[in-house]
Design goal:
This protein is an alpha/beta fold and 302 residues long. It is built from ten helices and eight strands. The two termini are 21 Å apart.
Length: 302
């Protein structure tokens, strides 16, 4: 079985004492693909400060993937080799724009180095509004230019964290498939970080996929969630979108240590989620959600 995860924040946790992989953020599966996100929020810092932070994370990504002998996946040929031979592969992504501008040297350099997924917005920045903004102004002119430039460079736009208007702005600007790497469904849990059904259908209709998130507040109102609440989102997605649209985007190391019961950091979160899915759904459906939908997407779009 292939296990592919569209989003984790483990890259931002690397320190002198702690490496990129540990017992809870990887899997025992024969073939694994993980998107490692460089998380660079705005939080009042200048664009230059954020660009420097982003380049630091890129250096950490290269160092750690070399140290751990992880295959850095940048094109479909490399992904085919991973799925044929097994092992673990990594894709570099960005969460939060990182102060990148459409014509910046950093964006071009990172694309050449393997950046393949970019979420322009985490908190509101010079690129556009986030999902928490009461005054939803969508993408700025610079944000629109960045989305166009991503399409030209072969970088997939991640719609997670965008405001509703910014979400649709991105679709209007770029003809390429978009993804939501770590988002659930607003009809099941009415959190603004989750997708409306129209949003989800827009992603799937363009050939994208949706990575399901295990952050408790995105699973159940109030956040007192269990794995049964994750299954409610999966049931909703399967009924309305089919099994070709759902993937894992578990947000490990981005949940402040909070997970739906009984998950914790004592052992592989991926393996326990997949084992729970196998108790509920047909094997073929689990294989699609666990990894095939994500790898099929990247085989078409890397």
């Amino acid at each position: 079985m292939i296990i592919a995860d569209l989003h984790c924040d483990s890259l931002t946790k690397v320190s002198a004492e702690r490496g990129l992989l540990n017992k809870y953020n990887t899997s025992g599966a024969d073939c694994r693909l993980q998107l490692f996100a460089a998380f660079v929020p705005h939080r009042g810092r200048s664009a230059e400060e954020r660009r420097r932070e982003l380049m630091r994370y890129a250096n950490v990504y290269f160092y750690e993937t070399d140290r751990l002998s992880l295959a850095r996946i940048t094109d479909s040929r490399e992904l085919c080799e991973l799925t044929d031979l097994g092992g673990m592969g990594a894709i570099f992504s960005v969460e939060g724009g990182g102060g990148l501008l459409s014509e910046s040297d950093e964006l071009f350099t990172l694309s050449r180095a393997g950046l393949r997924v970019l979420g322009p917005i985490w908190d509101t920045n010079e690129l556009g509004s986030c999902c928490y903004d009461k005054d939803d102004t969508g993408l700025t002119d610079e944000g629109k230019r960045l989305v166009r430039r991503c399409s030209e460079l072969g970088i997939t736009v991640d719609l997670s964290h965008m405001s509703d208007r910014a979400f649709y702005d991105s679709f209007d600007i770029s003809p390429m498939p978009h993804i939501a790497t770590h988002s659930n469904f607003r009809d099941v849990c009415g959190h603004p970080r989750n997708l409306t059904l129209d949003m989800a259908r827009a992603i799937v209709g363009r050939g994208g996929v949706i990575g399901l998130n295990i952050y408790p507040e995105y699973l159940k109102p109030g956040g007192d969630a269990t794995l049964d609440d994750l299954l409610r989102h999966i049931d909703y997605g399967l009924e309305r979108l089919g099994d070709g649209a759902l993937a894992l985007g578990l947000d490990i190391d981005g949940t402040d240590g909070r997970y739906p019961a009984p998950l914790d950091e004592s052992e592989s979160i991926h393996d326990r989620v997949v084992n729970e899915l196998l108790r509920r759904y047909p094997d073929a459906t689990v294989r699609r959600i666990a990894g095939e939908c994500a790898t099929d997407f990247f085989l078409e779009n890397l």
